[in-house]
Amino acid sequence: MSATTTSQNKASTSTSSFPGLPVVPPSDPSLTTPANMSIPRAIRKSFLAVSQSEGAGARVRRSIGTPQLRNFSPFLMLDHFSIPPSAGFPDHPHRGQETITYLLSGAVDHEDFAGNVGTINAGDLQFMTAGRGIVHAEMPRQNEDGSANVGMQLWVDLPAKLKKCEPRYRDLRAEEIPQVKLDDDKVQIKVISGQSHGVDSVKELAYTPVWLLDITIKPGGKVQQALPVGWNAFAYTLEGAVQFGVGKDAATIQKYHNTVFEQKGDSVVAEVDANATEDAQFILVAGLPLDQKIVQYGPFVVNSQEEVYQAMSDYQTFSNGFERARGFQSEIGKRMDH
């Protein structure tokens, strides 16, 4: 998406990690602490993500990146998007961040100025590192029933030393995602990134350390999910109602709400009332906070005002990472002309 974006593209640079990036060490106590000794995180705040227009004809429920929750490091923006077949995100630039797109229904095509093209379908994800610069388009497929293409897109800040790296993409297909079933199958967890109850995700997806779990709980189900100590964490409820927290700190959260957890603690407890009439589904996300200033101007995320001016100049003059933008017009973006 543009200042919002559904990032989707294929192939690119090396798969090796950059040295020196902070990661959670295997000895992190949050990963080995027995559940009965764990410290559940309390809720800091929970609020409704209000629907708004974005791009060309799309609707998004934005929670991170609003006055309610701005720059929740390393997270910059979270959109729950709905793109009808006639809408989309034609050619637009990015610099300085990573985007994680999780498609829940439908299909979205992507194309960039380096010739990368592809499609992600329901259940698939794409991790895009914009780095020093990318221009791409993201356009929905026409569904037979005319329904919208729905998904989540998360913008993640890049450490300052990686903001000038070459852009790259990682596609993660639905069938590649390991799953965990708990509490007599009343809890199902898709381990997109991170760890859950002894199951590790596919590696090498993003440069900034982020955990992303898609959790579905049936009525009467309960789970206690360990999270790395000191990381910022939130849950976005997609369906149903879920209770987070324990004891007097517990609260029942309805769908389309973003629930932000306190940094103190090493786990999140979630359950669904046994009398509930539907399952609850939410994504639980945690990320390593970055100790750096954030200066954002639309699709450019840098560390100083001077770098904003530089990014705008580079984009307009086709330089310093935007050379291939000169004369670029995506084929899929032309759909908006019809």
From TrEMBL:
Q: Known InterPro entries for this protein? A: Pirin (IPR012093), Pirin_C_dom (IPR008778), Pirin_N_dom (IPR003829), RmlC-like_jellyroll (IPR014710), RmlC_Cupin_sf (IPR011051)
Question: What is the name of this protein?
Answer: Pirin-like protein
Region span, Disordered: 1-34
* Record keyword Oxidoreductase present: no
User: What's in the keyword line of the UniProt record?
Assistant: Iron, Metal-binding
Provide the Pirin N-terminal domain boundaries. 58-156
Which ranges are annotated Polar residues under compositional bias? 1-18
Cofactors required: Fe cation
Give the record's family classification.
Belongs to the pirin family.
The note on cofactor binding and number reads: Binds 1 Fe cation per subunit.
Question: Which residues hold Fe cation?
Answer: 92, 94, 136, 138
Q: Which CDD domains match?
A: cupin_pirin_C, cupin_pirin_N
Which GO terms fall under molecular function for this chain's record? Answer: metal ion binding
Q: Which organism is it from?
A: Tothia fuscella
Record-annotated Pirin C-terminal domain positions: 213-320
